[in-house]
Amino acid sequence: MEDQLKIIGVVSVATLSMIVLRKIVHRLALSRAKHPSLTGHSKMAKRVARMLPGYAYDEAYFFASDNAPADIIQHRRAGLGKLAQLYATRFPKSLAMTVEAAENISDLQFTSHYRVPYQYSAYLRGQLKTASFIAATDGVTMTDLDGNVFYDLTGSYGVNVFGLNFYKTCIAEGSARVAEIGPVLGVYHPCVLSNVKKICEISGMEEVSFHMSGTEAVMQAVRLARYHTKKNHLVRFCGAYHGWWEDVQPGIGNPVAPRDTYTLKEMHDDTLHVLRTRRDIACVLVNPLQALHPNKNAPGDSSLVDSARQAGFNRAAYSAWLESLREVCSARGIVLIFDEVFVGFRLGVGGAQEYFGVKADMVTYGKTLGGGFPVGVVCGKREWMRRFTPARPADICFARGTFNSHPYVMAAMQVFLERLETSDIKKIYADCETVWNSRAELLNSQLQSLGLPIVIANMSSIWTVSYTRASRYNWMFQYYLRAEGLALSWVGTGRFIFSLNYSDADFAEVCSRFINAAHKMQADGWWWQDATLTNKAIKRSILKEMLSIKFGLRHG
Ligand SMILES: Cc1ncc(COP(=O)(O)O)c(C=O)c1O
């Protein structure tokens, strides 16, 4: 008896040790699959963010933070003065309304504070404000309240794929189709059936659900994956944006501590190993836009403290990555979700699935698919989309939304989907890859031959600007671009989104304005550099400055 107890004891200890060891091995594998940057460590990033001291450069340091010589500082002062004068005389009505509205629009306050690195923001806002009101749009241009015409590089956050006039038509024609029923909810207009059939055909999926935004579509896709797999964790990739819902935005910006989300390295074997070996993963979320800058946050000028921002797109490598994800997800019963809210209908009619040649289990769409109205769509194979289990009637996966399938949205979507079948749009899709790659090459070769310190990386019509010479002032470029009549979103030069109706002549005009802006920025001394000014030196000096403010050795 005693011997038996001893054996049981030994076996229990051995089993327990095995379990603990297994846990340690899995935990280490998980750590290895995290990207070494702070973006890859949500908890740590939040902790570091909490410690970041708030401070602002005064007038003198604003111009001299890189220790430029006096004559350069003088050029910069004069340059900013000229810009401020130009903004004040050219945009008076648009600016006055923006200032008045910002009092009561939280979003405007937020975006106006975060257009540039925060140390420079307060002084700059006092000199240069950015207008947020417009009066009209046409073709590829927008007209502000003062009658200034801008080329639109904002792409309306990605909604605008075919030009704003296209969406005006979708909205007008669609609204006429459903005018008889008005905004009734809970029952469908027949256009819903035609939309569902077309979306199933385009996505290669079997079922569809409609929501009010891309964020909601992603929430529902993840909820369904958790419901069917009976597992909790979702895997998202470092830097990828999937809307602002808690679980897909686990780091800075979300007051709740990360839970049930693994943020892993994209395009890396360590991640595949985790997917192969863990048993708690319900789904993998992929935002194919990340192919332009894997493992990095969406590039915004508010974090452009030096010239380290880089991007580059390798279609073959990203296709191979998606194939390996597909393989491991199929083998492990993990739901592979392509979040095509941004890239869907931009890279081609079949979106990322077609473009990269890999099928997902579920796809989310949004933005442009609403024909100009707000929308989110989930499509998936039947086995993943069902929201109930007949054998266990109380085991349901709930999803509602008062405005889902709103008749006006559905009708604009119907017009949008019909138009995709026209020869004009088919031609645009057939050419768009070549057209936008050659336009990026053209601008890059002009920039290079003029010796301007800028380079463009693009994924089709989605562009990002990088800077080739170390500088603390690259974010100033967005103000020179606006002065030349180029409209940018609040992230500045981090993201240009072209609509596919840009003609060669429109594009040539954008290039010429872009180059003018760069020449002026250069002449005003913002890109001055000497041998000591490297990206590393800039980072080090900012860190030093933060630490001295934090520990009271210096005041902001
Ligand atoms: C890939 C992706 N997913 C989800 C979202 C969220 O969509 P929405 O802003 O409509 O909530 C976005 C928005 O930019 C997105 O780019």
Could you characterize the architecture of this molecule?
This protein is of the alpha/beta class. Helix content is 47%, strand content 12%. It has 19 helices and 14 strands. It has helices at residues 2-32, 42-51, 59-64, 70-90, 92-102, 106-113, 118-127, 164-178, 191-203, 214-229, 269-277, 315-332, 351-356, 382-385, 407-419, 423-449, 477-483, 504-523, 535-550, and strands at 134-138, 141-144, 149-152, 207-211, 233-237, 261-264, 281-286, 335-339, 362-366, 376-380, 454-459, 462-467, 486-487, 496-497. Helix 8 crosses helix 15 and helix 17 (477-483) packs across helix 18 (504-523). Bound molecules: pyridoxal-5'-phosphate.
Give the secondary structure arrangement, pairings included.
Blueprint: H1 2-32, H2 42-51, H3 59-64, H4 70-90, H5 92-102, H6 106-113, H7 118-127, E1 134-138, E2 141-144, E3 149-152, H8 164-178, H9 191-203, E4 207-211, H10 214-229, E5 233-237, E6 261-264, H11 269-277, E7 281-286, H12 315-332, E8 335-339, H13 351-356, E9 362-366, E10 376-380, H14 382-385, H15 407-419, H16 423-449, E11 454-459, E12 462-467, H17 477-483, E13 486-487, E14 496-497, H18 504-523, H19 535-550
Parallel strand pairs: 3-13, 5-6, 5-7, 7-8, 8-9
Antiparallel strand pairs: 1-2, 2-3, 4-10, 9-10, 11-12, 12-14
Bound molecules: pyridoxal-5'-phosphate.
Pyridoxal-5'-phosphate binds next to helix 10.
